[in-house]
Please model this.
Amino acid sequence: MQIEIRKGMNLYPGSCNAVVAPVHVMVSAINSNADLQRFLFLYIGGNYSRVLSGIHRDSTNFEIRRAFTAHQLLSVLREASHTIVLVEHDPTLFEGAGKMLAPVARALKDAGRESLVILYTPAIDRTFAALMRQADRIIEIAAAEDISSRVSPRAIRLQRNGGPLTGGQRTLEVG
Model:
């Protein structure tokens, strides 16, 4: 059993994975894998979800649990005995409960020994960064519009080495 996030990027049982990707990428990865219906799948959400409404839940093996506090998230993780555990990160769970970051990160790692654990977010924040430190694997998939707006490494090298600059002064005039 595996989940293919993108072509050639597979997640396997017995691991804790932190995934940063656009919502449509995560929804597509889950919906396009028909084999997931054969396994016990646990979705853990917080106070709100971006992913849940897009997931096809016609499988009888798909369970949804909500955690409204970091303590509830820790309890749900400790009780989980599913083949796949998808945790959609909600930073509001940790407001005023920063001391819960380390125990929750350890619980994610522990659950990953027996299951495929995916800690998912569309954008990294401070709490996700703390939780992902325990992950076996960190995957970041940028949205197409993010990639197109980035400056290419070649352009940065050219600028550093005195090469052409775009939209700026090209020569220095001394008087």
Q: What stands out?
A: The mean pLDDT is 85. The CA atoms of residues 97 and 134 lie 18 Å apart. The chain has six helices and eight strands. The helical segments are 23-31, 70-79, 101-111, 126-131, 144-149, 153-160.
